[in-house]
Amino acid sequence: MAQALACSAAPFVFGSSPIPAAQAQDASLTQPGLNFYPSPRLIRAEILTEMPAKFRRTGVKSEWSTVNKVGQPPVDCFIEGLTLDQQGNLYVVDVPFGRLFKISPDLEWTQLAEWDGEPGGMALHPSGKFFITDYKQGLLTFDPNTNKIAPFLGRRDSERFKGLNDLTFALNGDIYFTDQGQTGLQDPTGRVYRLRTNGQLDLLLSTGVSPNGLVLHPNESVLFVAMTRDNSVWRVPLFPDGTTGKVGRFVSFYGVSGPDSISIDEQANLFVPHASLSSVFVINPDGEPIARIVSPKGKTTTNIKFGGPDRKTVYITQSDTGAILKTSWDIPGRRLYAETGRT
């Protein structure tokens, strides 16, 4: 009986017999642990700034809050769309109240625009205009010279989108964007589009499970798409002829929500903010976690962008608290289209 108990307590490796206790003890000195890869590095982010009280709409109901925060008090803000310009200014949108804010290097907040929309993603064009994915209005632009919001693409073949969520630019100016709507495991019909610079609109995916953030591999041969309700990131190969195939699940997570607006560094390490785990997970090109950036406040980490002169400063939106977090990384973020100088 004692021998049987000892055997049953021995460590187990999938696909093998139980390891003798003595051998397991020796192995523990060299093996990283039961995950079969080294323990991820833990990084604690700090709060850089928070939305000032004068801009918070405390107690104000919104259609977005009613649908997305069922059973909870209405939110006073929910910031996303984190974007940086060459002068060190930060920009965020406020989803439930259709607002756009600028945050100066000295951390002064300024409201630039407000409209009847639910903006989610935002990216800067080399021309200086911002492109915004809006759940209600489609693809919009914001011109900082006039402070005007304008429609850019509201429909496809006269059909409205389900509800746009996020976007990213290729280095040639093509726009990749997600059409999430209310899709999920119950309705896996979320879509991913590519809008070419010549106006051609390509449907790359139509079976997405709540497609959200997306980012291109540094060599632009692969598109990574966060599928929030699948709690995963999908890997979408991009072929030279413009088609795609053999789409796969690159990495999986857990939790009440899921991955949100993702980013990537020059060595193809993927940065995945999780909207219910207070963290940004860093995943290497093989799909293994190598770091976890932890928020000091709130659970809803949604966006991550690289900034600073060397693109090694990491900024993160903590949406449920209206905060922007900051930390650093030792590898520069992927070069952005806005940095190419093209128009």
Short description:
With 343 residues, the protein is mostly beta strands. The chain is 6% helix and 42% strand.
Question: What is the strand arrangement across the widest sheet?
Answer: 1-24-23-22-21
Order of helices and strands: HHEEHEEEEEEEEEEEEEEEEEEEEEEEEE
What's the end-to-end separation, in Å? 77 Å
Instruction: Give the oligomer, counting copies of the same chain as homo and different chains as hetero.
Output: single chain
Low-confidence stretches: 1-30
Helix content: under 10%
Mean pLDDT: 91
How many helices? 3
Please give the largest β-sheet. Answer: 5 strands, mixed
* General shape: globular
Total strands:
27
- Work out the radius of gyration: 22 Å
Secondary-structure class: mainly beta
The amount of beta strand, in percent, is 35-45%
Descriptive notes:
- A five-stranded mixed sheet has the order 1-24-23-22-21, with no helix packed on it. A four-stranded antiparallel sheet has the order 2-27-26-25, with no helix packed on it.
- The chain is built from three helices and 27 strands.
- It has 343 residues and is mainly β.
- Strand 11 and strand 12 (159-160) form a beta hairpin.
Task: Describe how the helices and strands are arranged.
Elements: H1 2-9, H2 21-27, E1 41-44, E2 46-50, H3 63-68, E3 79-84, E4 90-94, E5 99-103, E6 109-114, E7 119-124, E8 130-134, E9 138-143, E10 148-153, E11 155-156, E12 159-160, E13 164-169, E14 175-179, E15 190-195, E16 201-208, E17 211-216, E18 222-227, E19 232-237, E20 248-252, E21 263-264, E22 270-274, E23 279-283, E24 289-294, E25 301-307, E26 313-318, E27 323-328
